[in-house]
Amino acid sequence: MADNNYLVFTRKWRPQTFEEIIGQEQVTVPLMRAIETGRIMHAYLFSGPRGVGKTTTARVFAKALNCEKGPTAHPCNACAACKETMDGSSMDVIEIDGASNNGVEQIRELREHVGFSAAKSKYKIYIIDEVHMLSTSAFNAFLKTLEEPPKHVIFIFATTDPSKIPQTILSRCQHFRFRRMPVNLMIENLKMIASRENIRYEEDALFTIAKSADGAMRDAQRIFDQAVTYSKGEILSGKMATEMLGEIGIETQNSLIAAIAGSDIKQAIGMVEEIFTAGFDLRHFLRDFIELIRDMLVIKTTGTREIVDIGDEEYAFLEKTGGGLLKKEILYILQKAIDASIQLERTNTPDITLETFIMDVILNQSAGAEPASDLKQKPAEKQAPVKEAVAPAAVKKDEAAEGHLVIESIEEKEAIVKLTKEIIEKRWENIVEKARMDKERGDLAQALETAGIVAFEDMSLFIVGENPFMTKILSNNKDAVREMIKTEFETAVSLIIQDKEDYRKKYQVKKNVDEEEAKNHPLVRDLGKIFKISEIDIKKSR
Q1: Which of 31, 43, 380, 406 is the most buried (most CB within 10 A)?
Q2: Residue 124: what are its φ and ψ, rounded to 5°?
Q3: Which pLDDT score is estimated for 413?
Q4: Cis omega (within 30 of 0) for bond into 71
Q5: pTM of the model
Q6: What does DSSP say about strands 405-408 and 452-457: parallel, antiparallel, or unpaired?
Q7: Domain 9-177, what architecture?
Q8: Class of domain 250-363
Q9: What is the band of 422 on the pLDDT scale with cuts at 50, 70, 90?
């Protein structure tokens, strides 16, 4: 039989004093000092994200004002006024939901009751949650009361969107801004709850829960409560937390980071395949990956954890792994990850995009930096060439494009001579736009738009079609695509086109070069090492 007396963690462990409210000292300290000095305002506005303690702070403030020993910055939580405020039965602390009481009639009714004195306490306190939901007419009806309220009345407004509150209201309130809760503070709070509830856990589990709460303490406690139920009395592990949340575990993220740092391309690509096959969202995965690489860069650059929002074990991992890389190498990985995240938003082949990103950062990890001492590199291998810096692209209107926005690069001609994969990716939309303007080629624009750019080495561009139909369109228009690329970059390139599934299954490269050139071709050599190609079909130039 269910226990009807069970209290969820969000209610059971709700802070009851200012000291118990963590992470919001910019609010609690001024409120305590205002009480101690007797400088009590008649209207307060608490704004900030959901689940960070706005309503909780309002209730503690109300207790502090109406406590039988107060007003006091340290309410006793034992007197009748404190207990009634805590359980929501106080006649002098009225909580109103702004979302469901947002009409002018409700505000007029409130104005009529404001004039009555407090029943038992010193102050009559109105806590209005989500106050931004009030209608314009309701705000107007409320304005006069807010401007000249009775001395015994105090208003506390809470909102997640202060921009929707009229300036006439804002100017009459003392405004306090609440912050998103950092991960480390949420973990400490969950540890406190676990200790008092005799819950066994792994550090990874708390970190996963805190990260998924997205800065909301209430969400962290709710998810933790749910995870404890899911664990059925066993030790709450990181694996359990990720299974319950349906997310990729932090250990997977860390394994990928370690594989990239150690130049283990086989391990890294294999992980992407496993994640993709399991049905996880690669965009979400890459966003989390970017956050961790950013944290690693901050730790490496500053030598401190004060700026990063992570737990103890994660900090130790990032510090150790980042210790084997140069700052420029970590920055390069971060920049390429951000570029890949932008591409993921518009591609139909997210797995190939992520694989390409991993190949790029491992093969060219030391671009712009001296090679790190511990990077795995065979003596016979040459260091990947340093790619030229690419100037930011400028967006301008092309009169011939019939109103379409075309990306035009502002690189110098010298930079274009040394064409890179990054330049091609940034200006690929221009190639697509050229295809759109060629009415005789039908679906070529769609085939180019959905194609994946895998690699560009020694003036050879390797792309894959989204499906056999699109691949056939690309192959039938190979000369036209080559010409479009030559027109865009003033440089001739060789084009390798392969179907996505063939690329995934066989990783077989077909290159239109002489056999002797193919033996030492960087693209064939690198892809051969990466995917263990056993057979290469060479086509001789005509």
Answers
A1: 31
A2: -105, 115
A3: 39
A4: yes
A5: 0.59
A6: unpaired
A7: 3-Layer(aba) Sandwich (3.40)
A8: mainly alpha
A9: confident
